[in-house]
Amino acid sequence: MNLRKILIPAGIAALFIAAYQSWGVQGIVTVSGGVVMWGLLHYTRLMNVMQKARHRPIGYVGSAVMLNAKLKAGVNLMHVVAMTRALGQQLSADGEEPERYRWTDGTQSHVTCEFEGGRLARWELVRPAPQDGDAPAQASNSAGES
Question: Which of 71, 83, 133, 137 is the least crowded, having the fewest Cβ atoms under 10 Å away?
Answer without folding.
Answer: 133
